[in-house]
Amino acid sequence: MKKLSLYLIVFSLCLLSFGACNKKQSEAPDEKILKLGWKELKGLDPATGKMAPLIQDANGKEVKIAGFVTPLTDDAAQIFEFTLVPYPVSCVHTPPPPPNQIVLVTLENSHINPEDLWHPFWVYGTLQIDQTQNEFFTASYKMTAHHIEKYE
Hints:
Blueprint: H1 2-32, E1 34-36, H2 38-41, H3 53-58, E2 62-71, E3 81-85, E4 103-107, E5 121-133, E6 138-150
């Protein structure tokens, strides 16, 4: 009888610790995502390449950034490549924002509806410090985004 009680206690403790481990694992992804604002993104000097420690740490990591979308594709029904900028239509006017205020985003496995373009978004993905230049803008950052949601 004592053995049975001991087994039940050990089994119960194992179940409790297993539940605690699972809870921590489900919370971990949110804790690993670094929230960056446009003030922090200014921590990269496009002219010299010098960057703040926070920007160095964010390179290659999962981040989330809030901003406005400027589409780069002609297909109005499926926007999957865009720039993320701090203000609405920032990348449409001349001159464009400085390079450290433009993130070139490729959205994987999803797209944005054109009627939602006037809303700000949270964009989640892997940030890369990689300067891209074309005839319209120069961006200091690239992001492969796996999730996007309206900023509320």
